[in-house]
Amino acid sequence: MEDFLDAFVEILDDTDRSILLAETIYKDLDEWDSMTALMLIAMFDEKYEKKITGNDIKEATTLNDLYLIALK
Amino acid sequence: MGAILRAIEYVYPENKVTNDDLSLQFPDYDFAKFEEKVGIKNRYWVRENETALDLAIKACEKLFLRIDKDTIDYVLYCTQSPEYFLPTTACILQDRIKLAKNIGALDFNLGCSGFTYGVSLAKGLINAGQAQNVLLITAETYSKYLHPKDRSNRAIFGDAAAATLISSSDIEGIGEFMFGTDGSGYDKLIVKNGGGKFSFDQAAPEIVYGTDNTYTDNHLYMNGPEVFNFTNEVIPGFTKEILQKNNLNIEDINQFVFHQANAFMLNFMRKRLKIPTEKFLIDLAEGGNTVSCTIPIALKKYSETIKNNQMQSIALVGFGVGLSWAGGIVKIDRRL
């Protein structure tokens, strides 16, 4: 999980790593927008070689939800 | 005998919309970060009474400053912003710019793959002896389809028109082109209402999608993550197939000119294909994503850097709404 959070903070510019937790509702982060959604897809592809769909992003709420998709 | 790209001219509307202008409407959004990631500084939108055909006519008028319009014997007009359901916009263009009457003229409805399709169609017409000088128009005003509160799409899309002349030639300047289609993704980028299936609905409800963007079914909708997934899955492999079909390697290509969708997305594909940055054009800052016009605009700008008539092999790849993709190789040795 910590590894995943390290990777997630990389797609953000101004968000402190310390506020990212498994239960963080990532869509509430100030920096979350349609561009970071694309960067998340790219991160999944590069780091986990996994495809995350638009629907996955729509349905996931917390960072842990995303992490579970990365583990699948 | 063959066909070559001889000249390109393009225009944007006069109404320039900067990121600062957009930030007045969307004060909570960080447009500096948007500019850094997506690469767009300005886009141009038509005013209410201006249409894609008006832009197309201006692009043609620029072209006719150096090309004899009486030599044009075929018009291919690519748009998803036609003047009317019917008649064909290309017919109206013929009259407005006073082209000869004994010519062929048709519209074709494609978006971001439209220019590469058009080049290939023009090559086919010329090499079949059906035409000598094909005027390929791409003209688009997606701004008319954007919901006023759709921040993401308002930031990305701009209007433009390009007029490209493709002519018969002693050499073949247009290589092998390839195509792809996947209509299962038809609703990933769509204006749902106003066509044959669903009427324009005065009472269409506002729908919030993605990250605080709003649209109705009368407006353009884009599922950004799914379009991104499609391009990542399809376009790098497709680009390699184009090179193989033309018996070329990445090193043989002087410049890759992809549809200018979004700088982050383009660089992601560039890295996957291991194309050096200097061989991969990014041209989004000035006009944004102008749909079928991005490739001719970028190609024209690139052609201005060609020195001493050095022949250049350029890979063109268009992809997007449909879902539809098309690409191939062109050879040019001068300013277009």
TrEMBL record, chain A:
InterPro entries: ACP-like_sf, PP-bd_ACP. Residues 5-66 form the Carrier domain. It comes from the Bacteria. This is Phosphopantetheine attachment site.
From TrEMBL, chain B:
One of its GO terms (molecular function) is 3-oxoacyl-[acyl-carrier-protein] synthase activity. Keywords: Acyltransferase, Transferase. It comes from the Bacteria. Transmembrane segments: none annotated. Residues 243-332 form the Beta-ketoacyl-[acyl-carrier-protein] synthase III C-terminal domain. Pfam families: ACP_syn_III, ACP_syn_III_C. One of its GO terms (biological process) is fatty acid biosynthetic process. Residues 106-183 form the Beta-ketoacyl-[acyl-carrier-protein] synthase III N-terminal domain. InterPro entries: ACP_syn_III_C, ACP_syn_III_N, Thiolase-like. This is 3-oxoacyl-[acyl-carrier-protein] synthase-3.
